[in-house]
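Protein modeling request. Please complete all fields; requests missing the sequence field cannot be processed.
Requester role: graduate student
Desired output: 3D structure, token encoding
Chains: 1
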Amino acid sequence: MERSRYETAVGLIDDAHAQDPTRVSSDGKAIPYELLYSTKMSGYLELCDPNASETLRLAIRAQHLRRWEVPRSTYAMNKTGYHLWRTYLKKRQAEMAAQICLESGYSSEDAGRVAALVRKENLKQDEETQTLEDVACLVFLDDQLEAFEKEHDEAKIVNILRKTWGKMSDEGHRLALDIPMSARARELIAQALEG
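Delivered output (195 residues):
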């Protein structure tokens, strides 16, 4: 049976994620981190918007497309360097996602929409961009918060959580509070929401 353009695009995105050299354990198996990340992104999208458009589903899946190829260490390890790195990644990942869409049979308009979502254009005004941001924040809280907490001091973590919370919608907040997490992680979130 012939695959749909959506299945083709997801397959190409997942093939790229599968090349991530960083391996993590999931259900007792070592898998590429970015493949796990994209799967979690898709899972949280189902919670946020089970009727999401194909373009949003593709943007969600492509959010960190080949991110490992541009390590954070390639930019200055300060706030300016961080923002330059993130800006470059968004542009690069959007271009790669759009190309995959075109190769899979999507129109240039649909490919452009996927790219705009990956770049997070019009956050807070565009409902789909906001959904993507909510999903990314939920995956951060679910998948990365506890590791961040071990690597950074409390004040920095509280500040990151405050910024993360500020980017999310009310629905994102509701879903975030349902994520199973350690007592320490909940305490840090409570501190961020107090200030």
